[in-house]
Amino acid sequence: MGCGGSKAINNDIAPADPGIEVLHPVPNQGNRKIEAVAVTRSDEETSAADENRTADAEGDLITRVEETWRSVTEAYKLEHIGLEFYLRLFTDSPELLQLFSFSDIDLSSEAARNDKRLTRQGRVTMEHLDLAVSSLNNLSSIVPALKELGARHVMYKVEEHHYEPVGAALLKTLHNGLGERFTPEVREAWTQVYKIVADTMKAGAKELQDAKLT
């Protein structure tokens, strides 16, 4: 596969510990000293709040990826996106071209854009990405397919360090397609999704390699 801001608020009062709801003074009674009673959320409440924040963050991430991918695929065909992705990948990392059966392509020539082998490879790769994006709410359903894909890439002599330039090329391709809509938040969302996909493929590759050793 393939090619991803902050605000400060000044306040004289230090922010409250998120684990403490309120601090109540207890009036003096006889010889008793004033006490401060910290009312702390229960472990269950804190855990539920953390889970809700995590779910909201994941939901935002998925929405950003789904919406921007929809924008790109509505504007361009998958084979066009795939072609641009591979041209970017081979321009930035020309050594990776040797991993493909069409390594004889002259990338400096306009004919490269019309090469059916490259076009087909681009379309297939983007179809895999399209499946991953459409399954973001149920990624476990495509884990076996991603692991199998990663295992197959071992036979293509793909190594773990190759995934980084592929991810960079994907982000650049998306940036070119989205323009100003490729915000830092969108970039981060795509970075996280690609990491999940790449890590799953790497796991599939490792399982195959480990099996060969037993």
TrEMBL record:
Belongs to the globin family. This is Neuroglobin. InterPro entries: Globin, Globin-like_OT, Globin-like_sf, Globin/Proto. GO terms for molecular function: heme binding; metal ion binding; oxygen binding; oxygen carrier activity. Residues 55-206 form the Globin domain. It holds the Pfam family Globin. It comes from the Eukaryota.
